[in-house]
Amino acid sequence: MIDEIADKVRAGERIGAGEALELYQGAPTGLLGRLADGVRMRKHPERIVTYIIDRNVNYTNVCVARCNFCAFYRPVGSSEGYVLGFDEIFRKIDETIAVGGVQLLLQGGHNPDLPLTWYEDLFRAIKQRYPAFKLHALSPPEVIHLSRLSHLSVPGVLARLIEAGLDSVPGGGAEILVDRVRRLLHCDGKATSDEWIDVMRHAHRAGLRTTATMMYGTVETDEERLEHLLRLRALQDETGGFTAFIAWSYQPGHTELAGSEATGIDYLRTLALARLVLDNFDNLQASWVTQGGKVGQLSLAYGANDMGSVMIEENVVRAAGASYCMDEVEIVRNIEDAGFAAKRRNMHYGILGDPIFRERQVPRMLELATSRQAGDDAVPAELRLYPARSRTGKTTRM
Ligand code: SF4
After folding, report:
1. 65 lines ligand 1 (CB under 6 A)
2. What pLDDT, on the 0 to 100 scale, is given for residue 394?
3. Residue 110 CB less than 6 A away from ligand 1
4. From CA 74, how far away is CA 109, in angstroms rounded?
5. CB under 8 Å to 180, separation ≥6 — which residues?
6. For 139-151, how does the pLDDT look when each residue is reduced to its tens digit (9 = 90+)?
7. Residue 263 carries which DSSP code?
8. pTM (2 decimals)?
9. What distance in angstroms lies between residue 398's CA and the mean position of ligand 1's atoms?
10. Quick check: 145 and 108 in contact, CB under 8 A?
11. Collapsing DSSP states into helix, strand and coil, what is residue 251?
């Protein structure tokens, strides 16, 4: 039976849920990899692996959602809570542009003291200063949070954000799109599976391209991992709005849920499964941030055609104890050593050119930046201009 399903994949036919599960649970890892690599080579025969230079900025760590797998957030009123100032964000953009970066991946906690107008003002200010710079910002749960806070519909919030400069929606907060799992992870409140899908549907209808993610390795079954992929495939059939899929393993350090991390083989099998099931997705990213450079490089033989981001800054995975860093030189070395040509890309996977360090001198980056230097608890002056919802926020803004 596995041979028949493998032949179907090789012939370019779509596989169903039962067939995908049988492959995932029964096929040897080498075969899964060869099948996924075959699909990847059909879609990208030119032997190019892309990557983007951007910065992963988390504008606040204050969050009311309190997902039990998250080591990043701080509750409202925590002395470790922060909100970045507009000037701090501009400085981060300047540093990003200096090393050839083209966008911010901007995500944060669900902070009740940041109204929709704060985001609009920030986006407008960024676009005014850096017109060509892209904003890949606010995952679906953040959009839902803003919808609840502002009493506007999801399409209404998206329209306001697009008007202010939003270019693309990152696929964060999907975890596993099965409500049983979401309840166990305490993340069904921030967005149910249907709500997450619905934000993406509205974003695609509004003309935005978005990414899709999966955080696996918590409490889900194999069937539920597969259901997640099938939900993404169905929406992609409907809208065609996803540019890429990214899977990463749950990072248990410093989390309430605790537990252990999925292995490298589990990652590679899951990535290969995604390449086989998501036959309508062009791009799959390697998650070197959670898997390290070596498994990240191996991903290129298990279905991935993109090394994700050079990144510059990362806070969320680091909070859970994992800290891998690869600058452009290192990412390119991994791509070329695997037998591919390395190309810089934009958020729509358009090729921008060869590695920037071969065009001009850029500083080596030996560790990732953080949102804030330790001990920096500055409160941005402009926050006083925005109404706070929490008692703490109201007190500090008086
Ligand atoms: S994962 Fe996101 S929404 Fe959940 S607690 Fe962390 S910051 Fe908040």
Report:
1. yes
2. 83
3. yes
4. 8
5. 224
6. 999 999 999 999 9
7. P
8. 0.96
9. 27
10. no
11. coil
